[in-house]
Write a structure and sequence with these properties.
single chain, 254 residues
Protein backbone atom coordinates (compact mmCIF):
# COMPACT_ATOMS: atom_id res chain seq x y z
CA UNK A 1 0.00 0.00 0.00
CA UNK A 2 1.81 3.12 -1.21
CA UNK A 3 1.95 6.44 0.63
CA UNK A 4 -0.59 8.75 -1.02
CA UNK A 5 -2.95 5.87 -1.79
CA UNK A 6 -6.47 6.80 -0.53
CA UNK A 7 -6.75 3.47 1.32
CA UNK A 8 -3.35 4.06 2.97
CA UNK A 9 -4.38 7.59 3.96
CA UNK A 10 -7.65 6.36 5.47
CA UNK A 11 -5.80 3.67 7.43
CA UNK A 12 -3.29 6.22 8.68
CA UNK A 13 -6.08 8.52 9.90
CA UNK A 14 -7.74 5.56 11.62
CA UNK A 15 -4.52 4.70 13.44
CA UNK A 16 -4.13 8.29 14.54
CA UNK A 17 -7.67 8.35 15.95
CA UNK A 18 -6.98 5.14 17.87
CA UNK A 19 -4.26 6.93 19.84
CA UNK A 20 -6.62 9.48 21.38
CA UNK A 21 -7.42 7.47 24.49
CA UNK A 22 -4.08 5.68 24.83
CA UNK A 23 -1.05 6.68 26.90
CA UNK A 24 1.72 8.08 24.73
CA UNK A 25 5.48 8.12 25.39
CA UNK A 26 7.31 11.23 26.52
CA UNK A 27 10.66 9.92 25.27
CA UNK A 28 11.01 7.84 22.10
CA UNK A 29 14.38 6.37 21.12
CA UNK A 30 14.99 4.95 17.65
CA UNK A 31 17.67 2.63 16.33
CA UNK A 32 17.89 3.68 12.68
CA UNK A 33 18.83 0.28 11.32
CA UNK A 34 18.85 -1.19 7.82
CA UNK A 35 20.33 1.59 5.67
CA UNK A 36 22.98 -0.65 4.09
CA UNK A 37 20.56 -3.52 3.47
CA UNK A 38 18.08 -1.08 1.94
CA UNK A 39 20.79 0.04 -0.48
CA UNK A 40 21.89 -3.51 -1.36
CA UNK A 41 18.29 -4.52 -2.02
CA UNK A 42 18.14 -1.79 -4.66
CA UNK A 43 21.58 -2.38 -6.11
CA UNK A 44 22.60 1.04 -4.84
CA UNK A 45 25.75 2.19 -3.08
CA UNK A 46 26.03 2.23 0.69
CA UNK A 47 26.20 6.03 0.69
CA UNK A 48 22.82 6.20 -1.02
CA UNK A 49 21.31 4.09 1.75
CA UNK A 50 22.70 6.37 4.44
CA UNK A 51 21.48 9.47 2.62
CA UNK A 52 18.00 7.99 2.26
CA UNK A 53 18.02 7.25 5.97
CA UNK A 54 19.18 10.76 6.81
CA UNK A 55 16.36 12.20 4.70
CA UNK A 56 13.81 10.32 6.80
CA UNK A 57 14.88 11.81 10.14
CA UNK A 58 13.05 15.10 9.75
CA UNK A 59 9.84 13.21 8.96
CA UNK A 60 10.17 11.23 12.20
CA UNK A 61 10.72 14.35 14.29
CA UNK A 62 7.64 15.94 12.74
CA UNK A 63 5.55 12.85 13.57
CA UNK A 64 6.84 12.98 17.15
CA UNK A 65 5.83 16.63 17.45
CA UNK A 66 2.33 15.80 16.20
CA UNK A 67 1.64 13.47 19.14
CA UNK A 68 3.42 15.49 21.85
CA UNK A 69 6.62 13.50 22.33
CA UNK A 70 9.07 15.61 24.36
CA UNK A 71 12.39 13.83 23.80
CA UNK A 72 13.70 11.79 20.86
CA UNK A 73 16.98 9.89 20.86
CA UNK A 74 18.41 8.77 17.52
CA UNK A 75 21.27 6.27 17.27
CA UNK A 76 23.21 7.18 14.15
CA UNK A 77 26.60 5.57 14.78
CA UNK A 78 27.92 3.12 17.37
CA UNK A 79 31.40 2.80 18.84
CA UNK A 80 31.57 -0.62 17.12
CA UNK A 81 30.92 1.09 13.77
CA UNK A 82 33.93 3.33 14.32
CA UNK A 83 36.17 0.31 14.79
CA UNK A 84 34.57 -2.17 12.41
CA UNK A 85 34.25 -0.11 9.23
CA UNK A 86 36.91 0.93 6.76
CA UNK A 87 38.00 4.52 6.33
CA UNK A 88 36.51 4.45 2.81
CA UNK A 89 33.08 3.63 4.23
CA UNK A 90 33.33 5.68 7.41
CA UNK A 91 34.38 8.93 5.72
CA UNK A 92 31.20 9.41 3.63
CA UNK A 93 29.03 8.27 6.54
CA UNK A 94 30.54 10.87 8.87
CA UNK A 95 30.00 13.53 6.21
CA UNK A 96 26.34 12.53 5.91
CA UNK A 97 25.96 12.68 9.70
CA UNK A 98 27.59 16.12 9.82
CA UNK A 99 25.25 17.36 7.09
CA UNK A 100 22.04 16.01 8.60
CA UNK A 101 22.85 17.33 12.08
CA UNK A 102 23.65 20.72 10.56
CA UNK A 103 20.37 20.70 8.63
CA UNK A 104 18.33 19.75 11.68
CA UNK A 105 19.97 22.52 13.69
CA UNK A 106 19.40 24.95 10.82
CA UNK A 107 15.63 24.52 10.95
CA UNK A 108 15.50 26.23 14.33
CA UNK A 109 12.72 23.83 15.34
CA UNK A 110 14.56 21.38 17.57
CA UNK A 111 17.12 21.49 20.37
CA UNK A 112 19.99 19.21 19.40
CA UNK A 113 22.02 17.40 22.05
CA UNK A 114 25.02 15.38 20.89
CA UNK A 115 25.74 12.28 22.94
CA UNK A 116 28.40 9.61 22.68
CA UNK A 117 32.16 9.34 22.73
CA UNK A 118 32.82 12.30 20.46
CA UNK A 119 36.50 12.04 21.32
CA UNK A 120 36.62 8.90 19.16
CA UNK A 121 35.55 10.88 16.09
CA UNK A 122 37.85 12.86 13.80
CA UNK A 123 38.43 16.23 15.42
CA UNK A 124 36.85 18.18 12.55
CA UNK A 125 33.70 16.04 12.69
CA UNK A 126 33.34 16.40 16.46
CA UNK A 127 33.73 20.18 16.19
CA UNK A 128 31.08 20.49 13.48
CA UNK A 129 28.60 18.40 15.44
CA UNK A 130 29.18 20.37 18.63
CA UNK A 131 28.90 23.68 16.78
CA UNK A 132 25.57 22.62 15.27
CA UNK A 133 24.31 21.58 18.70
CA UNK A 134 25.43 24.87 20.26
CA UNK A 135 23.33 26.84 17.74
CA UNK A 136 20.16 25.27 19.20
CA UNK A 137 20.70 25.77 22.93
CA UNK A 138 18.01 28.48 23.10
CA UNK A 139 15.49 26.61 20.99
CA UNK A 140 12.30 25.83 22.90
CA UNK A 141 11.25 22.74 21.03
CA UNK A 142 11.55 18.99 20.89
CA UNK A 143 14.80 17.79 22.48
CA UNK A 144 16.66 15.58 20.02
CA UNK A 145 19.56 13.48 21.29
CA UNK A 146 21.88 12.47 18.45
CA UNK A 147 23.93 9.42 19.46
CA UNK A 148 27.16 9.29 17.46
CA UNK A 149 30.09 7.13 18.53
CA UNK A 150 27.68 5.73 21.08
CA UNK A 151 27.94 2.49 23.03
CA UNK A 152 25.97 1.56 26.14
CA UNK A 153 28.95 0.08 27.96
CA UNK A 154 31.05 3.11 27.09
CA UNK A 155 28.33 5.43 28.43
CA UNK A 156 28.17 3.65 31.78
CA UNK A 157 31.97 3.54 32.00
CA UNK A 158 32.17 7.27 31.22
CA UNK A 159 29.50 8.01 33.85
CA UNK A 160 31.27 6.09 36.62
CA UNK A 161 34.63 7.59 35.67
CA UNK A 162 33.17 11.12 35.71
CA UNK A 163 31.50 10.51 39.07
CA UNK A 164 34.75 9.30 40.64
CA UNK A 165 36.77 12.12 39.09
CA UNK A 166 34.27 14.73 40.25
CA UNK A 167 34.22 13.51 43.85
CA UNK A 168 37.99 13.07 43.95
CA UNK A 169 38.42 16.67 42.77
CA UNK A 170 36.39 17.78 45.78
CA UNK A 171 38.80 15.96 48.06
CA UNK A 172 36.57 12.99 48.85
CA UNK A 173 38.20 9.93 50.40
CA UNK A 174 38.10 6.51 48.72
CA UNK A 175 35.40 5.43 51.17
CA UNK A 176 33.28 8.50 50.35
CA UNK A 177 33.69 7.89 46.62
CA UNK A 178 32.62 4.27 46.99
CA UNK A 179 29.52 5.31 48.93
CA UNK A 180 28.68 7.84 46.21
CA UNK A 181 28.49 5.11 43.54
CA UNK A 182 24.78 4.35 43.56
CA UNK A 183 21.95 4.25 41.02
CA UNK A 184 20.87 7.87 41.41
CA UNK A 185 24.38 9.30 41.31
CA UNK A 186 25.40 7.31 38.25
CA UNK A 187 22.23 8.49 36.47
CA UNK A 188 23.36 12.07 37.06
CA UNK A 189 26.47 11.44 34.94
CA UNK A 190 24.89 9.69 31.96
CA UNK A 191 24.69 11.36 28.55
CA UNK A 192 20.94 11.81 29.14
CA UNK A 193 21.19 13.31 32.63
CA UNK A 194 18.16 15.38 33.55
CA UNK A 195 15.98 13.72 30.92
CA UNK A 196 13.20 11.17 31.37
CA UNK A 197 14.23 7.62 30.55
CA UNK A 198 12.93 6.36 27.20
CA UNK A 199 9.39 5.01 27.36
CA UNK A 200 9.63 3.40 23.94
CA UNK A 201 12.56 2.15 21.86
CA UNK A 202 11.90 1.39 18.20
CA UNK A 203 14.32 -0.67 16.13
CA UNK A 204 13.84 -0.92 12.40
CA UNK A 205 15.04 -3.60 9.93
CA UNK A 206 13.58 -6.62 11.75
CA UNK A 207 16.51 -7.13 14.12
CA UNK A 208 15.30 -7.98 17.64
CA UNK A 209 18.12 -7.01 19.96
CA UNK A 210 19.10 -3.78 21.70
CA UNK A 211 22.85 -3.95 20.90
CA UNK A 212 23.70 -2.03 24.07
CA UNK A 213 21.50 0.96 23.21
CA UNK A 214 20.64 2.99 26.33
CA UNK A 215 21.40 -0.02 28.52
CA UNK A 216 21.04 1.86 31.79
CA UNK A 217 18.05 4.00 30.83
CA UNK A 218 15.97 1.23 29.25
CA UNK A 219 15.47 -0.92 32.35
CA UNK A 220 11.69 -0.34 32.18
CA UNK A 221 11.39 0.63 28.53
CA UNK A 222 8.95 -0.92 26.06
CA UNK A 223 10.51 -2.18 22.81
CA UNK A 224 8.97 -2.27 19.35
CA UNK A 225 10.68 -4.08 16.47
CA UNK A 226 9.65 -3.06 12.97
CA UNK A 227 10.40 -5.06 9.83
CA UNK A 228 10.86 -2.01 7.60
CA UNK A 229 14.38 -0.81 6.85
CA UNK A 230 14.92 2.67 8.25
CA UNK A 231 14.70 4.55 4.90
CA UNK A 232 11.28 2.89 4.33
CA UNK A 233 9.95 3.65 7.82
CA UNK A 234 6.67 5.52 7.33
CA UNK A 235 4.29 7.52 9.48
CA UNK A 236 1.98 4.49 9.56
CA UNK A 237 4.82 2.39 11.03
CA UNK A 238 5.37 5.04 13.69
CA UNK A 239 1.67 5.13 14.55
CA UNK A 240 1.59 1.34 14.82
CA UNK A 241 4.49 1.51 17.28
CA UNK A 242 2.60 4.06 19.37
CA UNK A 243 -0.54 1.94 19.26
CA UNK A 244 1.40 -1.11 20.44
CA UNK A 245 2.94 0.97 23.23
CA UNK A 246 -0.45 2.30 24.29
CA UNK A 247 -1.92 -1.22 24.44
CA UNK A 248 0.74 -2.53 26.81
CA UNK A 249 0.48 -2.59 30.58
CA UNK A 250 3.76 -1.22 31.84
CA UNK A 251 4.96 -3.10 34.91
CA UNK A 252 8.11 -1.09 35.67
CA UNK A 253 9.95 -4.18 36.81
CA UNK A 254 6.97 -5.89 38.42
Amino acid sequence: MAVGNPIYSAYERRLFRQLRDKPLPRHVAVMLDGNRRWARQRGAGTDEGYRAGADNIEHLLTWCEEVGVEVVTLWLLSTDNLVGRTAEELGPLLEIIENVVGELAGTGRWRINMMGALDLLPEATAERLQEASARTTEVDGLLVNIAVGYGGRREITDAVRALITDHAARGASIEEVVQAIDVDNISDYLYTKGQPDPDLVIRTSGEQRISGFLMWQSAHTEFYFCEAYWPDFRRVDFLRALRAYGDRHRRFGG
